[in-house]
Amino acid sequence: MKKVDLAMFFETVSLMAEISNGAKKLVLCHYPMMTWEGVAKGAYMIHAHIHNNTNADYFALIKNMSNILNAGVEINGYQPVLFDELVENNNQFKSATL
């Protein structure tokens, strides 16, 4: 990544970002976080990193929090999805692992 000028391809590159979809605050980070700004007010944490791994100890926490969403390709049919689809895909994935 250090050999590529990322600014040519991305508006910004950062470790974490806070945005809004117009209705909800969204916190974006490569890694899942257990707490974030606005969590008590319904803000969403959108992450990747874990793919569809359900074996890690922290997965029990993630699957019980509806506002933590995995943006990994395995959860989302290997394609970009809209926010509502991301929510539904995560609901289906989490309920299948109960």
Brief synopsis:
The protein has one domain (27-96). Helix content is 19%, strand content 17%. The protein has helices at residues 59-63, 83-96, and strands at residues 16-20, 25-29, 44-47, 68-70.
How would you sum up this structure, described in words?
This protein is of the alpha/beta class and 98 residues long. It has one domain. It contains two helices and four strands. It has a four-stranded mixed β-sheet. The chain is globular and about 45 Å long. The chain starts with 15 loop residues before the first strand and ends with a helix.
Write the layout of secondary structure elements.
Layout: E1 16-20, E2 25-29, E3 44-47, H1 59-63, E4 68-70, H2 83-96
Parallel strand pairs: 2-3, 3-4
Antiparallel strand pairs: 1-2
Features of the shown structure:
single chain; about 100 residues; alpha/beta; four-stranded mixed beta sheet; 2 helices; 4 strands; about 15% strand
- Range of strand content: 15-25%
- Overall pLDDT metric: 93
Structural class: alpha/beta
Helix content: 10-25%
Total helical elements: 2
* N to C succession of SSEs: EEEHEH
Number of strands: 4
Largest sheet composition = 4 strands, mixed
| Rg, nearest Å | 14 Å
What general outline do the C-alpha atoms trace? globular
* First-to-last CA distance: 38 Å
Number of domains: 1
**Regions with little confidence, pLDDT below 50 for 5+ residues:** none
Strand order of the largest sheet: 1-2-3-4
